[in-house]
Write a structure and sequence with these properties.
mainly alpha; two-stranded antiparallel ribbon; globular; Pra-immunoreactive; RDD family protein
Amino acid sequence: MQFYLSEEDRSPVVVEYASFWKRLAAFFLDTLLISLFISIFVLPLVGIRQVPEITDLEGRMKLQGIVFLVAWLYFASFESSARQATWGKQVFGIFVTDTQGHRLSFARASGRYLGKILSNLTLLIGYLMAAFTERRQALHDKVAGTLVLQHPGKPAS
């Protein structure tokens, strides 16, 4: 796949699809960062201070809603930003584009995040698709029309 560094510099850059393992490692790092953020900043703000408060149904529903909201804002904001990548993806030199190589809008990045619900409902097989499809797309990438690519100049593995 060919992209250009900028509109002014039209010399083509060959970009590779991100490997399944880099995507998985980035996801684990992002999940760790989100968990730390929620534990340190969000839970005390919403009044959850102890584990027993999240063992009842109301507490669990509240926590699930918070996790969903924070994770959605994290993934959609970072993947639609100028860097086109969450912190985890940045560490591993990968980024998200649409199928034409353009930056995602916040709406499309949100759709990609919501598409992860499908990847989860398939007993995670939706995620495993990234290891076997030609363009390394998971189910949520196919639904949202996105690609995860290796950054030019960063070694692929």
